[in-house]
Design goal:
The protein is an alpha/beta fold. It has five domains: 38-182 and 274-323, 3-Layer(aba) Sandwich (Rossmann fold); 216-263, no CATH class; 327-404, no CATH class; 417-468, no CATH class; 487-561, Orthogonal Bundle (Arc Repressor Mutant, subunit A), CATH 1.10.10.350. It has 24 helices and 17 strands. The strands form six sheets. It has a five-stranded parallel β-sheet with strand order 5-2-1-13-14, sandwiched between helices. A three-stranded antiparallel β-sheet has the order 7-8-11, with no helix packed on it. Helix 4 links the parallel strand 1 (55-61) and strand 2. Helix 15 (370-384) packs across helix 16, helix 17 crosses helix 19 and helix 20 (487-501) packs antiparallel against helix 21. The longest helix is centred in the C-terminal third of the chain and has 21 residues, at 448-468. The termini are far apart. 39% of the residues are buried. The model is unreliable at 1-31 (pLDDT under 50). The structure holds one RNA strand of 77 nucleotides.
RNA sequence: GGGCCGGUAGCUCAGUUCGGCAGAGCGUCUGGCUUUUAACCAGACGGUCGCGCGUUCAAAUCGCGUCCGGCCCGCCA
């Protein structure tokens, strides 16, 4: 526990630990800390319970076809609370349970392959999945034939995403917790107190009757989860069962009729008991969950924890679901987005920022307006460094920013996202830098690492512009676009071509464009538009003169003369 | 039918815990930078805080009612 092996900065002294705790106490006393960042308020609540260390923060989902961004609430919301507690000097263990002893109940329409790319059911062995309806995810082969099981495949995806966002989380398999006996005593306890269990649960679920047994064995014959327990032998720690049909929605998963005996490790608790059982065996102090649990599983779980398991439930936190492009996340409708996809478009810290925002608000992730999210992040970052005159943003940034970035470095350069997208018009690195320099984002004092990081945004913003095919999807046209100009515009273009051919630099070209337009009696705007059409096949573009100054002179001259 | 959460400027959101002048960024418009693009600078426009009633000297904030959206109250997670 205190061997320091996972302690990043090693020799932290007890004195410093003390002061961290004291500082936290001061923060808690005036309340400023908690008001400004939800994770700090949650941390206060956990702290108030004087938890044993390590403090355990849990999340978890049942494996499904795709690990989408919504699932990531289970990891990111806990991460921020863990980070605040660590800052206060506590040892924190963040775990994520893959609830993988759950049976596959229906076929997913979409799956994510090992790289996180989404594929349809038709691209995998769907028959093998269909035959395994009702079987625990850990006993179903990986449809991609790579991992040990369907469950392992799914867990690996989530773990890979957590790594991409640099969140240290320990993945736990529910099945393993059953098989290695971690759950066994709780299962025995629940079966021993089956009357109380039934009584408590029946307040939440009307279907619970006298025959209800809170344990579902796995059929020794067909391997499916069964629901019919006929006898419980507490001394032998076994149950007798019949493998009967299971109803899922309006579908029926057929049982094989086998009658057998199962140990308490060969089955699972129903979810309503399994969740509190996890709290007990893992010693969970905090758990965020989606609003779907808020009025169902949570109240019953809390009750079961106190009155059946006789433990104190963790500090809860409900998070709102977010929508994608205004629509509910839905894998069957195909309205999903993954961490991998998002990281093609955003830097990891921007995505982390998204999850640092108030969990109580339903939030829409509008891909077409990602520039707005990135602008918000940039402002949030500047606020941390005291450059924003807005108390509430600054207070939030002061608390949350250190947990959003991997490293606090004040002299970072952030190109505005739309400008970064515009720079994506060229793949020429030097040209990108030159244009950023022209606009004042980079100067001679900018360190090389900052330039490097700034340019990382260009590829992402470019990917966004292409994906959305929006106004920032500029690309230098290799071939002459179809154009049709007035005579005086053509004359002006020829004059400008001569000016460029004479070897003038970008700044001069920019100035000359105005002169040329005036000389030929055309609106400056029309002349610029002509230039944009020639080079981008679009009526808008970057600051043109300086841009042309960066390109190959022969190419520019030929294009201005409409020669290719 | 019962319950929970949300609804604040065109957009994205602070502010609601604990009542004290309705806020920010973006967008838009106007002007500026010898310069109509990305950006930058100055300014302006923009509000029935979903709606109604109540409490109060004072309500986005508290209470009651109501509308809209999501979720839960079967199974499952």
């Amino acid at each position: 526990m205190s061997d320091g092996s996972d302690d990043a900065d090693g020799g932290e002294s007890d004195v410093e630990q003390m002061s961290a705790h004291e500082a936290a106490a001061v923060d808690g006393a005036d309340g400023a800390d908690a008001r400004d960042f939800w994770a700090a308020a949650v941390a206060d609540e956990i702290e108030a319970r004087n938890p044993d260390e390590p403090i355990v923060i849990k999340g978890g989902v049942s494996p499904s076809g795709v690990a989408h961004l919504g699932n990531f609430n289970e990891i990111m919301r806990g991460y921020f609370v863990a980070a605040v507690l660590r800052e206060r000097g506590y040892e924190v263990r963040q775990v994520f349970t893959s609830d993988d002893r759950d049976p596959l109940r229906k076929l997913p329409r979409k799956l994510a392959d090992v790289d996180g790319d989404i594929v349809g059911l038709g691209d995998v062995d769907a028959g093998a999945l269909g035959r395994n309806l009702g079987t625990p995810y850990t006993d179903i082969p990986d449809p991609f034939g790579e991992s040990e099981s369907y469950a392992a495949h799914f867990a690996a995806l989530l773990k890979a995403d957590a790594d991409r966002l640099d969140v240290p989380v320990e993945m736990l398999s529910n099945t393993e917790l059953y098989e290695d006996g971690t759950f066994e005593d709780v299962v025995a306890h629940v079966l021993e107190h089956a009357d109380e269990a039934r009584e408590v649960l029946s307040a939440y679920q009307s279907k619970v009757d006298e025959d209800y047994v809170p344990f579902n064995p796995i059929c020794g014959e067909c391997g499916k989860i069964t629901e019919t327990v006929t006898e419980v032998d507490l001394d032998a720690r076994t149950v007798e069962y019949v493998c009967t049909d299971m109803t899922v929605g309006d579908e029926t998963i057929e049982g094989c009729g086998h009658e057998g005996t199962a140990t308490l490790r060969e089955g699972k608790l129903p979810w309503r008991f399994e969740w509190p059982a996890q709290w007990q065996v893992l010693g969970v102090d905090f758990e965020p969950f989606g609003k779907d649990h808020a009025e169902g599983s949570w109240p019953s779980g809390e009750d079961i924890a106190r009155n059946v398991l006789e433990i104190e439930p963790p500090v809860p936190m409900v998070y709102e679901w977010f929508t994608l492009n205004g629509e509910a996340l839905s894998s069957s409708q195909g309205n999903i987005v993954t961490v991998v996809e998002m990281l093609d478009l955003l830097e990891p810290e921007v995505l982390r920022y998204f999850f640092a925002l108030n969990p109580r608000k339903a939030r829409d992730l509008d891909i077409s307006r990602l520039d707005q999210l990135v602008d918000d992040f940039d402002r949030f970052e500047r606020a941390y460094f005291g450059d924003v005159d807005d108390e509430s943003v600054t207070a939030f940034a002061e608390r949350a920013y250190p947990f959003v970035v991997d490293e606090i470095r004040e002299d970072r350069v952030r190109l505005p996202y739309t400008f970064a997208a515009v720079l994506g018009m060229t793949d020429d690195r030097d040209l990108r830098i030159e244009m950023a320099r022209n606009e004042g984002y980079i100067d001679d004092d900018t360190p090389e690492w900052a330039i490097e990081e700034a340019l990382e945004r260009v590829d992402r913003a470019r990917a966004w512009a292409v994906r959305e095919d929006n106004a920032y999807n500029y690309r230098i046209q290799d071939a002459l676009p179809e154009v049709d100009f007035d005579e005086n515009v053509e004359a002006a273009l020829d004059e400008l071509a001569d000016f460029v051919a004479a070897g003038n630099d970008g700044e001069a070209i920019q100035g000359e464009m105005y002169e040329t337009a005036r000389r030929n009696d055309i609106e400056v705007g029309d002349f610029f538009e002509a230039g944009y059409l020639l080079f981008f096949d679009q009526p808008q573009g970057p600051r043109l003169g300086e841009f042309l100054g960066e390109l190959d002179t022969e190419f520019v001259v030929a294009r201005l003369r409409r020669d290719g």
